[in-house]
Every structure is written in structure tokens, then in C-alpha cells.
Amino acid sequence: MGADRPSGQPEEVVPQINPEITIFPAAIDRPAENSLATKAARRKRLLELMSTEMLQKVQDNFSAAVGVAMVIVDPEGVPVTKPSGFSAFCQAVRARAEWRERCFHCDAVGGRTALSTGEPSIYRCHCSLVDFAAPIIVRGEYLGAVICGQVKLTSDEGATGLVDLSNIFPFEGSWREHQPLLEEHHRINEVTYEKLRSAAYSLFYIASHIVEESYSRGVAQELYTKNLRLAEESKRRAELERLLREAELQALSYQVNPHFLFNVLNTIGRLALVENAPETENTVHSFAEMMRYVLKKSGSQFVQLRMEVEHVRNYLHLLKLRVGDRFEFSLDVPEEFLDVLCPVMVLQPIVENCINYAIEPRESGGVIEISAYRDGVELIIDIVDNGDGISSERKQAVLRGEADRGGRKSIGIYNIDSRLRYYFGTDHGLEILSPFRQGRGTLVRMRFPLEFEPFDF
After folding, report:
1. Total number of domains constituting the chain
2. Residue 127 lies in a domain
3. Given CB 3.0 to 4.6 Å as the disulfide criterion, which of 73, 210, 358, 455 pairs with 385?
4. Which SUPFAM superfamilies match (predicted)?
């Protein structure tokens, strides 16, 4: 049915609906692409891109200035701003769920009509009121529409392309059966088509500009975040390369002539055997194995854990010869973990730190404990001493590579921490707890995956 009119007046001529515009009555299921998830994603997209607070202010001011109702809706016709200038009639209609859905449907069809032309469209809603719909399109993506109107036109003259949606819903159960609503409907103001059109276009241009600006800011922020992340990654890579170069230079300093060094060590070992000095022979063997491990050339930065453990065992054996019974050590690494790959040279520098700061200052009673255990899919290695512990400030300085020892920077712990973070992620850095036990001692903990592909590094 058309708009209500006194009897005896000629029937209003209603322009035909464009056959290319698809109308989806509320009783018919929407296409698959209009699933709840898709609708939610579209609405979220619009809310992310637009400044709702700014649009609300502009919308309220426009509505008050031109005397027409305004609202901004998502692609489904659901408002994303609070309605401005809505008449008592429209507020009453939208207070009923079944009628409100019809309003949303009309606004959605109006928005899609505008989308098909790329310009604001004019349509008559199910309550026989005229609205303008202006599509909000950013980078070719339809985000919603500006709805302006809820008025009667003084004349349909000039309202070309007007789409009439007043008859797409059944008369039964509609607002027309309620006398108070009919009276409110008659009180709605009439405006000229040009005034309505001008208001719609003005708000359309401003809303599009605001959304475009918000979109540009979002893109700029995303680009800045990505660049910042890339810069941090480049910095980490550069720092790791620097540490590796320093390690290589340090190794080179030991490589004056490795063949000469091992020949001398072998000669000393054979001499000790001939002279029946087994302790000397064992000492030379431990030292030779340590040097072989340190000087070994390999294309990989990873070795089996058994090699790290054996290297530390040789190191501690030599230390025991020098400092005697001033400390004891234990290595509790179950056989099941010995084939696990780990970064090269991650245990000995930490143990050396224990010697320097926990054992050397004591006359006796020093303890160093090394243990390995599983935590889910990761291997945990703890190195514990019973020294005096370290302060929180020095712990941070150690992890930053800024701690001094004898006038030199001590970067061993920092080197290990940086490599673990680089290989396995920023949450895999060294953990240092001090004091650790009964107000004394320090625990240094490292963890890495039980299984990973070393060729990724």
C-alpha cells in the first residue's frame, strides 16, 4: 500500500523499483556471505576505521541544522551511531522488534542501492517516509551508509530514481493498524527534495572524509608498527652477528697453531704415561679435549648436549686440580637428554661465572650443581651455586653485558642470553634468581625446545 491519504485524492504515482536492485524480504534467508560472522566482521571493520565520536557530533549538528533525521548504519542497516533528530513516530516504530527489523532492512536496501550507483540513493521506507542513503566506501570496500530523512516530500518532482519499499511488507500487523501511530505519522514535516538531497550529500562527503582519514591513520600506524618491528629485528640480528664475530676473534686468538698445540699436549701425555704419572696424563687429556672442543670448526651453531656436558666436566676437573677441595660439583643430566641439540658453548661460561664469583672468594665448602629436566616440550637446565649471590642491579648489568670484572666488560652471560632469545624467541632468555636458597646462592636457568630444526638458523 502507498502512503495514507484522504479519500478522493488521486492515487500517487510511484516510480518502479530498479529490477537490478535485489530486495531481500525479512522472511527470506540471506545469501551465505551474509552469515553472522561476516556481518560481525563488516561491522567491526567500520567501527575500527571511523571515529564514532567525531561522526556523532557532525551528525547531531547536521540534523539540528536541517531538521531531518540522520543515522550511520553498517552494511546490514544496523545503526553504528546514535540516531539524531528521529521523530516520535520513528522512535515508536523502532521500539517494536518486528518493525525495527523492517527499518533495518529498508536502510540496508537503500545502502545497497546507493552502492550499485556509487552515489546517494533516495527511497521510501515501509512507513512511507522518504530517506536518502549515501554509501561509505573506502578503497573499494563498502562499510556502511549515511541515512538521512524520515520525512515527507512536498513533491516527488525531481526525485528521480526513487525506490519505493513501502509495499514490500504485509499490511497485517503493521504500524498502519495503530491509530496513535497514524496520528504521529500525519505530524511529520514535509521538506523539499532539494533540501533533503543537499543534506544527504553534505553529510556523505564529511562522513567519507572522516572515515578515509581514520583509514589512512590506521594504515600509517600499522606501517609504523611493522617498520619498528623490522628495525628491532635488524638490531637483534646485527647484535648477534657482532657477538658471533667477537667469539670468532676470541677463538682465533687461541689458534696460533692448533696442530703445534695438540702435538705438544700429546707429547706431554705420552711422557706422563712413560713416567707412570696417570694424574698428569688425565689432566693433559682433559685439557686437550677442552681445546679440541673450543677450536673445533663447524658450520652449525648447535651441538649435542653430551658434548657441552663433557666440555664442562673437563673444565671442572681441571679447576679441581687447581683449587683442590674448595668446592664440589655434580652433573645430573639424564641419558635421555644427551642427544638433544643445544647452542654451542652455553654451559661453560655460566659455570666459569660460578667459579669466579662463588668459589674463588671461599676457602672451602663451595658447591656447583648442574641439572637437566623436562618441562613439557622444553628442556630446562639449571646451574646453581652456593655463593653470596648477586644484587638485582648487577644481575641486570650482567644481562645487558655492562658488568665489569677487572676493568673489562664481562659479556659471556649477555652473549648466551642474546643467542637464546635470537634462536628460540624473546621469552627464552636466561633466568637469574639470587639469592636462591636460604638467602644465599644464585640459580641460572636456560630452556630450549627438545626438538627443533637447526638448519632454520
Report:
1. 3
2. yes
3. 358
4. ATPase domain of HSP90 chaperone/DNA topoisomerase II/histidine kinase
